[in-house]
Amino acid sequence: MDPITEKPRRRRADAERNVAAIVAAARDLLCGGTLPSMGEVAVAAGVGRVTLYAHFASREALLDAVVRKVMAETDEALTGLRLDDDPPRVALDRLVHTSWQILDRHRTVRSVTLAELGPEALREQHDRVARHVERLIARGQADGVFRADLPGPWLVASFYATVHAAADEVSGGRLDAEVAPDVLGATLQSILQGD
Which of 49, 121, 163, 194 could make an S-S bridge to 147, C-beta 3.0–4.6 Å? Predict the structure, then answer.
């Protein structure tokens, strides 16, 4: 073992573990319904404040990293659904239920991101997972299952507006999280099929 090359490698590995722990701790605290201070994140991650600030100079930078991680995991989960293997209506139902589980867990992350970073920052990250919805709607339109009298991008925007409205209703106590996927599914089928 070469001690000269081994030290930087070990520092990089330590830094990567620290970053992963910090992002995971911040996400867990947010998912628990709180907006944590940087100090609370450091304690939950098991790192010092100096280490935290060495990786994330501000709460905004940390929140951006949390959103990026959530979106990467969401993209992976939706890719794993293999939606192209199902007829569009079946795929839509699976997409809605999986998307809802992810969004329901991360409702506080979404609301804090909107408040702290603004809708544009969230949208930039959201585009990563939108391709799943775009592809499904385009396939449904091509198959004659989903309405073709409205542009695909509008239907994609309607999909997300409806899903986010459901999250807001659950957060406001006006919709039960347990029934939200079924309500969403029925609403989105109606929007996309023109019923």
Answer: 194
Query: Domain with 98 in it: what CATH number?
Result: 1.10.357.10
Residues 103, 157, single domain; the answer is yes
C-alpha–C-alpha distance, residues 20 and 12, integer Å? 12
Domain boundary residue among 21, 39, 57?
A: 57
Q: Are residues 110 and 130 in the same domain?
A: yes
CB neighbour list of residue 95: distance below 8 Å, 6 or more residues apart: 78, 81, 83, 132, 133, 136
Q: CA–CA separation, 24 vs 189, rounded Å?
A: 35
Q: What is the span of the domain harbouring residue 35?
A: 1-57
> Among 167, 186, 185, 187, which Cα is nearest to 177's?
167
pLDDT of residue 114: 87
What is the pTM assigned to this prediction?
A: 0.84
